[in-house]
Design goal:
By secondary structure, the protein is α/β, with parallel strands linked by helices. It has 12 helices and 27 strands. The two termini are 43 Å apart. Bound molecules: flavin-adenine dinucleotide (FAD).
């Protein structure tokens, strides 16, 4: 049986799909509008993606960077929150379809369904080189990183141990750079004294970028600073080298092979399938080519925002970043409000770029606001304050500020938990060490069990 969402018939129905940066900004801007608003997301939480890498690298826990969407809008009686995955849009009947068969009718629709990883036609690489997009990705990555050290502690073969302590990151954009800095500090500082058979500070972190510089969207001098800062921290930076193959535990690039127990993908994104749902034109990254007012060509009542659209202003593409999504969501809501008031004036989207920021480890960052550029620890503190400002809720702000201060002073990262798919108590990995072997390097059978 199809479940059709009931709404008051005398009020316009606005459906917003995606409780990310763009969708939430749209719902916020629609406050006070005499309409029924339905906010749909396939997850029950809004996620602050810029700090995902800190969950993956043990600085923060998941609940510090994510908030239940339902709670974020609970005071807005006109907003109904639905947990459901959109699978299609019937544009002829103005209905959104959810995976469970539910139909949600709309008068106005805003699609802010974001993006996912793109492997440039090599989807088979994904299991060996997972990316970072969701909380599940982050906790799985944290598990892989920590297990690499645990397995290395149990490994007696030198080459296998070296491979386990090699971390390769593919993609030198902000995510790759931030991950590389955090992983090298995790190994060289946080875990330094925790093991008896390995020296975590011998871990290799290799950042591989196909282009000629890291942080390609920054100015060249900032990229050069980032590269130098990474190298000083101990990251090996390989530039101008495209990865040609990824296998379990090894990657090929620049004509050679690197054995790496942990491989991370930070190289590309593909828009959500929103263009397919609507049957409209998309660019190579699957992004809808929207009209200047962010409406979808052919549909004056459907808008698309954030990472799921391609929009250029004055010939310059609007970047796929959080603030662009927020500005887009706000703009789409303003257009809808105008239309509801009978105002059909053209309202082109104007994007204001506030700046580029990225961090490298716990004491260096790059800030380029155009009118001012900051690096080093001044940049790092500015980066920290900027992120704390954008977080939701005083508790999280205070907690994260104190946590960062603690990491800054001591190097200690508290969220070092391996939480998924641990070997069971019946497995050899958890069995007590054979008599007489407690102080020696354990047999390879244990390592093999953990390697599974
Ligand atoms: C690791 C990482 C680091 C980043 N760092 C930065 C940074 O430092 N600064 C910055 O500005 N930007 C950063 N970004 C980019 C920024 O997070 C995105 O540009 C921004 O989140 C885009 O907002 P959005 O609203 O378009 O999509 P999202 O915020 O991704 O939200 C999309 C929402 O749609 C939901 N959704 C998707 N498909 C469906 C479906 N079929 N049905 C229902 N719901 C669906 C998702 O669950 C999600 O809640 C980073 C991104 C990542 C992944």
């Amino acid at each position: 049986m199809v479940n059709v969402m009931e709404t008051r018939e005398d009020r316009p129905r606005i459906v917003v799909v995606g409780g990310g940066f763009g969708g939430l900004a749209a719902v916020k801007e629609l406050k006070g509008v005499d309409a029924d608003i339905t906010l749909i997301d396939r997850r029950n939480h809004h996620l602050f993606q810029p700090l995902l890498y800190q969950v993956a690298t043990t600085s923060l826990g998941p609940s510090e960077i994510a908030w239940p969407i339902r709670q974020l809008v609970h005071k807005r009686q006109e907003v109904t929150t639905l947990l459901g995955a959109v699978t299609g849009v019937d544009t002829a009947h103005s209905v959104v379809h959810l995976g469970d068969g539910t139909e949600v009718p709309f008068d106005y629709l805003v699609l802010g369904t974001g993006a996912q990883h793109a492997y440039f036609g090599h989807d088979d690489w994904e299991p060996y080189a997972p990316g970072l997009k969701t909380l599940e990705d982050a906790t799985a990555m944290r598990r892989r990183l920590l297990l690499a050290f645990e397995k290395a502690e149990l490994e007696s073969d030198t080459d296998a141990r070296k491979a386990l302590l090699t971390f390769a990151i593919i993609g030198g954009g902000a995510t790759g750079v931030e991950l590389a800095g955090a992983i090298v500090e995790l190994a060289h500082i946080t875990l330094r004294d925790d093991f008896r058979h390995i020296q975590p500070e011998e871990a290799r972190v290799v950042l591989i970028e196909a282009g000629p510089r890291v942080l390609a969207n920054f100015k060249p001098e900032m990229s050069a600073y980032a590269e130098k800062a990474l190298r000083e921290l101990g990251v090996e930076v390989a530039l101008g080298k495209a990865v040609t193959a990824v296998h379990a535990g090894a990657i090929e690039y620049g004509g050679g092979t690197l054995n790496a127990g942990t491989i991370i993908w930070a190289a590309g994104v593909l828009a959500s399938p929103a263009a397919k749902w609507l049957g409209v034109e998309a660019d190579r990254a699957g992004r809808i080519k929207v009209n200047p007012d962010l409406s979808v060509p052919g549909f004056s009542n459907i808008f698309a925002i954030g990472d799921t659209v391609a929009v250029s202003i004055g010939g310059k593409p609007v970047p796929g970043i959080g603030d662009a999504a927020k500005q887009g969501g706000k703009h789409a809501a303003k257009v809808i409000k105008a239309r509801l008031h009978g105002d059909a004036t053209a309202m082109p989207f104007h994007y204001k770029h506030l700046g580029d920021i990225a961090t490298i480890g716990r004491s260096r960052a790059l800030i380029d606001f155009g009118w001012i550029k900051l690096t080093g620890w001044v940049g790092w503190w500015t980066w920290g304050f900027a992120h704390i400002y954008f977080l939701i809720g005083m508790k999280n702000r205070i907690f994260i500020a104190l946590n960062w201060l603690w990491i800054y002073l001591t190097g200690y990262r508290s969220a070092r938990l391996i939480t998924q798919d641990m070997p069971t108590s019946a497995s050899p990995a958890d069995a007590p060490a054979p008599a007489g072997t407690a102080d020696t390097r354990p047999p390879n059978s244990k390592a093999a069990a953990l390697r599974a």
